[in-house]
Design brief:
Length: 143
């Protein structure tokens, strides 16, 4: 099974992941919603929601890995597409953790500001630079 890297020359994988989430906002909300209330409001049981999440995760994995630059990854994805759901989930957990750390560090200083506005302030620009490097360092191995 190939190792999946998310940083440096492989950062297009993360870019494709984020692009898919931006395009498929409803699916993104369902994937990341932990709320039983959301399922109830949609008339779904928890099991149906889990099945739906898995379907979305499979679509997302296809979006990220079907056209991957690495031939070994593409071939393995073609043979074992479900094996790539877990790495997608792991990358989201990693990105969410880093996002929460950034928000904690920015605190009230960065509340409600755009990236451009944060980048204009020397203090927040330094934090953004540190976290941009940190986000690029994400690596995940398919288990």
């Amino acid at each position: 099974m190939p190792t999946i890297h998310w940083e440096k020359k492989n950062s297009p994988r993360t870019a494709r992941l984020i692009k898919w989430c931006k395009i498929n906002q409803d699916a993104r909300l369902k994937i990341f919603s932990d709320s039983a209330k959301d399922a109830k409001e949609e008339g779904c049981t928890c099991q149906q929601m889990t099945t739906q999440k898995n379907t979305y995760m499979q679509q997302l994995a296809a979006s990220v890995f079907e056209g991957d630059e690495d031939l070994k990854v593409r071939e393995y994805f073609q043979a074992h597409p479900l094996a790539f759901v877990k790495p997608i989930q792991g990358q989201f957990i990693s990105l969410r953790k880093k996002y929460n750390e950034i928000n904690l560090q920015l605190g009230q200083t960065g509340a409600g500001l755009s990236f451009e506005e944060l980048n204009e302030n020397e203090k927040t620009r330094t934090l953004l630079g540190q976290y941009t490097l940190s986000l690029r360092a994400c690596t995940l191995t398919i288990l």
